[in-house]
Amino acid sequence: MFQKDEYVFYESGGICRISDIQISPLEGMPADREYYVLQSVHDKNGVIYIPVDSDRVFLRRLLNREEAQALLDSIPSVEVIIEENAKLLRNKYLEAMRTHQPLEWVRIIKTVYRRTTDPERQRQRLSETERSLAENAKRYLYTELSLALGHPVEGMEEYIIEHVKKMA
User: Fold this and answer.
1) Which domain range does residue 136 map to?
2) CATH number for the domain including 110?
3) Percent helix, strand, coil in the chain (nearest 5)?
4) Within 13 A of 121's CA, how many CA atoms are on the CB side?
5) pLDDT tens-digit profile of 47-72?
6) Is 144:15 a contact under the CB 8 Å cutoff?
7) What total number of domains does the chain contain?
8) Three-class secondary structure of residue 28 per DSSP
9) Overall pTM > 0.85
């Protein structure tokens, strides 16, 4: 069970803070069931209610400081997704996003970066889906690392780039 004020990753809402745990927070909900009250980090107006005992909803704890540091250290060795067929590449991106794991977000970000900086591939335009998935991966990764490392999310991309350069 998660605790009040803990941050979690929710499959449909991204990174959220558990603002409360209540019994039946809204009218019409079963009166004998506890709910997590989630506040999205990215949508301050959005409130999500998830039954504490639900096994159909994906919630996971965020990385702790050591896990975040290990992830940063592994970035240079994360393999990009290799797929020439645009439809199959899209499916691989979607499959990676469905894991809800930071390592897979890194894989997507690195793949899109490679596709936009490789001179041979620059003739190929990124699809809107590819661009959108990469932006979601960045938003989730940067927020999760920011919370784990205590570094401002606004500077997280620069922080990661500098960290990777130091390792080279």
Assistant:
1) 65-167
2) 1.20.58.1290
3) 45, 15, 35
4) 13
5) 999 999 998 999 999 999 999 999 99
6) yes
7) 2
8) coil
9) yes
